[in-house]
Specification:
The chain is 54% helix and 16% strand. By secondary structure, it is of the alpha/beta class. It folds into 3 domains: 152 residues; 144 residues, Heat Shock Protein 90; 117 residues, Rossmann fold (3-Layer(aba) Sandwich), CATH 3.40.50.2300. The strands form 2 sheets. Strands 1, 2, 3, 4, 5, 6 and 7 form a 7-stranded mixed beta sheet that branches. The protein has a 5-stranded parallel beta sheet with strand order 9-8-10-11-12, with helices on both faces. A hairpin with a 2-residue loop joins β4 and β5. The protein is elongated and about 155 Å long. The termini are far apart.
């Protein structure tokens, strides 16, 4: 390719032309390469600027999100505080509301035991029904408030379904008889694991609901075991539930099936759903319009007794006549109502007191057979303190009952530690009688 001395001029021109073409080609490639690198550099600069813009936008979005999160946290804290305030208000108001209601029910019970003419019996019956409606509504509102609280604590323990059935039979027999219905409870010795208070509320609402929506036939309550689980089942021969209504029957204030609905506020099944969800008990339902409904609650087994428990009822237990009771109650009306129930209704000898000091003075030489104390007494005293003081003076653990409108878990735990049952206000006379008979048997 290089020039030689012996090359002819034409040969020299050819070689120089080739060399020039190669140089030109190389220069073109170099220029192309330089152009591509410049373009890449420009693209990199533009991309870096775009990244900086997007980074600033992302930082602003994160800042906005952080601010929204702070606002959300403040709003959530405010909502939780409002919910706690509502719960505290309901707890505080419940005692003041249930106190006169409980006294009124006991006075009505005492009035029913006297000689009344036809009009007076009708008025007494209507008053009793009105008070029961108010009581049902208050219990429903308080139950929903407790179940909606995030701080609710359950006292899970073995629950004797046989004992629960006997209590429900006594409680709902009058309601079923008034409608001409058969109310049956299948005998059982099954023990399940649950919160006894809320399991009873679940069963109460289901049985009450079954009776309300049944016009003829009856209601059957029983237990069916499946492996390590048990189904609490409530059958009725009522109006049934249409398929279109089954999704909403567990909502608040729903009364379906016929014109005017059934008596009540439509809150029972809402409480059942909430309680079952909190306790982890699944609930199922089968229904056929015009033929009846069955509700099933799935419960974990806690074991079963070998021997069935002896049936007890409010009218078949031991006599309470002549037994001595000390009543510690700071409300005058409630104190008088309890005195009438125990003294005139059950034939007990009753000593009443408004506080701990007066109760100690009422003890006398012989300790009483039972102490009945309201939880909230004057001057910050409690029924548990009254029971402890009376037991100390008696020198033995006198049987005792706490009567309270409070439904706080800590109250149940405190009473459980000293072996004292709690009777919720409004006090039903048959519940008080049944509890006294069990304690003093």
């Amino acid at each position: 390719m290089f020039l030689r001395d012996d090359d002819s001029p034409a040969r020299r021109v050819e070689k120089l032309t080739r060399i020039a073409d190669v140089l030109v080609e190389r220069i073109d490639r170099l220029e192309e390469s330089r152009g591509s690198a410049w373009s890449m550099f420009q693209a990199a600069v533009a991309l870096e600027q775009e990244v900086q813009v997007r980074t600033r936008e992302l930082e602003q979005a994160l800042a906005d999100l952080s601010e929204r999160n702070r606002e959300l946290a403040v709003a959530r804290a405010s909502a939780e505080e409002a919910n706690r305030s509502k719960t505290r208000f309901l707890r505080a108001a419940s005692h003041d509301l249930l106190q006169p209601l409980s006294a009124a029910k006991l006075f009505l019970s005492a009035l029913k035991d006297t000689e009344l003419d036809e009009l007076q019996r009708e008025l007494t019956g209507r008053l009793t029904g009105a008070f029961e409606s108010v009581e049902e509504l208050m219990h429903a509102v308080l139950d929903i408030s407790r179940l909606d609280s995030q701080r609710i604590e359950f006292q899970r323990k073995p629950v004797d379904l046989g004992d629960l059935f006997r209590r429900l039979a006594v409680e709902y027999a009058p309601m079923a008889e008034a409608k001409g219905l058969r109310l049956s409870f299948a005998p059982t010795t099954v023990l399940v694991e649950s919160d006894p208070t809320f399991l009873r509320r679940i069963a109460q609402n289901l049985v009450s609901n079954a009776i309300k929506y049944t016009d003829r036939g009856g209601v059957l309550v029983g237990v069916r075991q499946r492996g390590e689980r048990a189904w609490l089942e409530i059958y009725d021969t009522g109006i049934g539930i249409a398929a279109a209504d089954r999704a909403r029957i567990f909502d608040e204030f729903q009364r379906i099936g016929r014109e005017g609905g059934a008596p009540g506020m439509g809150l029972g099944l809402s409480i059942v759903r909430r309680a079952c969800a909190k306790l982890g008990h699944s609930i199922a339902m089968d229904s056929e319009p015009g033929r009846g409904t069955v509700f099933r609650v799935n419960l974990p087994l806690a074991g079963a007794r070998d021997e069935p428990a002896r049936p007890e009822s409010a009218c078949g237990g031991p006599s309470l006549r002549g037994r001595v009771a000390v009543v510690v109650e700071n409300d005058d009306a409630m104190r008088r109502a309890l005195q009438l129930l125990l003294q005139d209704g059950l034939g007990m000898a009753v000593r009443v007191a408004g506080g701990i000091a007066e109760a100690l003075a009422q003890m006398g030489d012989e300790p009483p057979d039972v102490v009945i104390a309201d939880y909230n007494l004057d001057n910050g005293d409690t029924g548990l303190q009254a029971i402890a003081a009376l037991r100390a003076q008696a020198g033995r653990a006198v049987p005792a009952i706490v009567v309270s409108a409070r439904r706080a878990p800590e109250l149940g735990l405190a009473c459980q530690k000293i072996g004292v049952p709690v009777l919720e206000k409004p006090v039903a006379p048959q519940d008080m009688q049944a509890m006294l008979q069990r304690m003093l048997a």
